């Protein structure tokens, strides 16, 4: 796992977006895994800037959403389909037909999950999966005790997760109780993982993910098993890392650090 500590939340987004932009420039039809929530917003804002100011072309990019609420119609403003269309697809000039989201309104949820897995397998592999991490260590909506071999499925949202997401709804009661999420096994199939975290509220989860034991009680710790997992955090989110100085030194002296930067000229 490569851990990168930067001064500010904006720099977290800039560095992750530089890596993604480099990938898209090299392969315009690359397959991305898209996360929602507040953590990746700085990534998408910086990618939108690259599109507007540097000519980054995302029109051929294919993408799969990490998760979706169960029971919200696709047109609901807080469905993840709507969020991705508003915050990612339109600003980046992506083709909506190339962006796939689990069907949280399906009559047969199990069949919808199987179909989503099959679509990822047919289109993929996912070249780069964007991730955030919850305060309880969840990635996607894989709550604590999720199997590391799990695939796309329905999950019950933990009370803490519903409380964290209540800010997006008019009242806590409106937050759905269930979701569809890519499983940890699905996530680990991606070629590269880029997880971003900002703020002190994520510090415990980041420390457990990076330096704690691999445990289903911290689903994010599954990244320790991946061959190319990149964790980009700001100083606040890194504040409980025991080896923070080592991570800074390692990144500063890494010969391949240029792969985080967008080539110029």
UniProtKB/TrEMBL annotation:
<keyword id="KW-0021">Allosteric enzyme</keyword>
<dbReference type="InterPro" id="IPR018321">
    <property type="entry name" value="Glucosamine6P_isomerase_CS"/>
</dbReference>
<feature type="domain" description="Glucosamine/galactosamine-6-phosphate isomerase">
    <location>
        <begin position="12"/>
        <end position="225"/>
    </location>
</feature>
<keyword id="KW-0119">Carbohydrate metabolism</keyword>
<feature type="active site" description="For ring-opening step">
    <location>
        <position position="143"/>
    </location>
</feature>
<dbReference type="InterPro" id="IPR037171">
    <property type="entry name" value="NagB/RpiA_transferase-like"/>
</dbReference>
<protein>
    <recommendedName>
        <fullName>Glucosamine-6-phosphate deaminase</fullName>
        <ecNumber>3.5.99.6</ecNumber>
    </recommendedName>
</protein>
<comment type="function">
    <text>Catalyzes the reversible isomerization-deamination of glucosamine 6-phosphate (GlcN6P) to form fructose 6-phosphate (Fru6P) and ammonium ion.</text>
</comment>
<feature type="active site" description="For ring-opening step">
    <location>
        <position position="136"/>
    </location>
</feature>
<feature type="site" description="Part of the allosteric site">
    <location>
        <position position="156"/>
    </location>
</feature>
<dbReference type="GO" id="GO:0004342">
    <property type="term" value="F:glucosamine-6-phosphate deaminase activity"/>
</dbReference>
<dbReference type="InterPro" id="IPR004547">
    <property type="entry name" value="Glucosamine6P_isomerase"/>
</dbReference>
<feature type="active site" description="Proton acceptor; for ring-opening step">
    <location>
        <position position="138"/>
    </location>
</feature>
<feature type="site" description="Part of the allosteric site">
    <location>
        <position position="146"/>
    </location>
</feature>
<dbReference type="Pfam" id="PF01182">
    <property type="entry name" value="Glucosamine_iso"/>
</dbReference>
<feature type="site" description="Part of the allosteric site">
    <location>
        <position position="155"/>
    </location>
</feature>
<feature type="active site" description="Proton acceptor; for enolization step">
    <location>
        <position position="67"/>
    </location>
</feature>
<feature type="site" description="Part of the allosteric site">
    <location>
        <position position="153"/>
    </location>
</feature>
<comment type="similarity">
    <text>Belongs to the glucosamine/galactosamine-6-phosphate isomerase family. NagB subfamily.</text>
</comment>
<comment type="pathway">
    <text>Amino-sugar metabolism; N-acetylneuraminate degradation; D-fructose 6-phosphate from N-acetylneuraminate: step 5/5.</text>
</comment>
<keyword id="KW-0378">Hydrolase</keyword>
<dbReference type="InterPro" id="IPR006148">
    <property type="entry name" value="Glc/Gal-6P_isomerase"/>
</dbReference>
């Amino acid at each position: 796992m490569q851990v990168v500590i930067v001064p500010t939340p904006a720099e977290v987004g800039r560095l992750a977006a530089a890596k993604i932009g480099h990938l898209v420039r090299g392969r315009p039809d690359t397959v991305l895994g898209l996360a929602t929530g507040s953590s990746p917003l700085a990534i998408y804002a910086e990618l939108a800037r690259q599109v507007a100011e540097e000519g980054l072309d995302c029109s051929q990019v294919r993408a799969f959403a990490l998760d979706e609420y169960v029971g919200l119609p696709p047109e609901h403003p807080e469905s993840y389909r709507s969020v991705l269309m508003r915050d990612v697809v339109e600003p980046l000039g992506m083709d909506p037909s190339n962006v796939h989201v689990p069907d949280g309104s399906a009559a047969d949820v199990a069949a919808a999950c199987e179909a989503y897995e099959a679509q990822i397998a047919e289109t993929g592999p996912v070249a780069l999966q964007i991730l955030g991490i919850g305060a309880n260590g969840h990635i996607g909506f894989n709550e604590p005790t999720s199997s590391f071999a799990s695939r796309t499925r329905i999950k019950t949202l933990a009370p803490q997760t519903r409380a964290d997401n209540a800010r997006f709804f008019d009242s806590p009661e409106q937050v759905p109780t269930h979701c569809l999420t890519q499983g940890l096994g699905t996530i680990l199939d991606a070629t590269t993982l880029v997880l971003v975290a900002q703020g002190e509220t994520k510090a415990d989860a980041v420390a457990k993910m990076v330096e704690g034991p691999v445990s289903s009680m911290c689903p994010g710790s599954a990244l320790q098993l991946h061959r190319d997992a990149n964790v980009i955090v700001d100083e606040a989110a890194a504040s409980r890392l025991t080896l923070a100085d080592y991570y800074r030194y390692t990144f500063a002296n890494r010969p391949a650090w240029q792969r985080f930067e967008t080539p110029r000229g």
